[in-house]
Amino acid sequence: MSAIATAIAPKSKQSAFDWLSRHWFEVFLIVYGIWVWLPFLAPLFMNLGWTGAGKAIYFVYSFFCHQLPERSFFFFGEKTMYALNEIQAAWQDTSNPMVLRQFIGNSEMGWKVAWSDRMISFYASVWLFVIGWWPLRRRVKLLPWWGFLLLLLPMVIDGSTHTVSDLAGIGAGFRDSNLWLVTLTNNSLPSAFYAGDALGSFNSWMRLLSGLLAGLGITWFAFPYIFLSQGQSQELKNLDYAKVIERFRNKKRS
Q1: pLDDT tens sequence across 123-134
Q2: Farthest CA pair distance, the chain
Q3: What is the predicted pLDDT for the residue at 242?
Q4: d(C-alpha 246, C-alpha 71), whole Å
């Protein structure tokens, strides 16, 4: 009886780990999903008058996102996004990003999501792409490292140029006017497409698309490896258990 207990003991001790190994996908969807979608509750809570809960979400996510209001989506107001001059008129006439990011909205304009538009595109796309990848996981080929870097490159370029542009002051940099793009396209597009950060502008499209491509790259590169490693780990465990059982049977026969 003691020999049987010895053979089974390792398996029972690892049961919690084994459960997590078998259900890692579901755990990821729940835990990461909460992380991704919780910022959308901030404007809902503010609209309901639950200001304490709403401001708590803004505060927590302020450590992970710049939360600039002119690059954020608003709910329960007149518009989905507002231009910088509209934010300044409603909040403070300033280009200081540390002051601008404090504006969360009001009853007329609505309340901003605690993620900026790029963060929504990036984080949410990972969650959605993983859901789409799961049914196809046995057929999707591994993404090579250069493909991964290629999909990250647009966000690196767009994010870095935004950062450099903002050094001249919010609303005063080369990414705010995009005169280089005006020249490149011979000014053939509407002026609203070139300037500012409003929804439908060049800057808005680049933030959304670059975040989407980065999310695709991370999902396609990382999750197939996680899936393969989990499968190999389970095979090794099954092999170990088989060896233990075989040894026990041999001892019993002798």
Answers
A1: 999 999 999 999
A2: 89
A3: 52
A4: 63
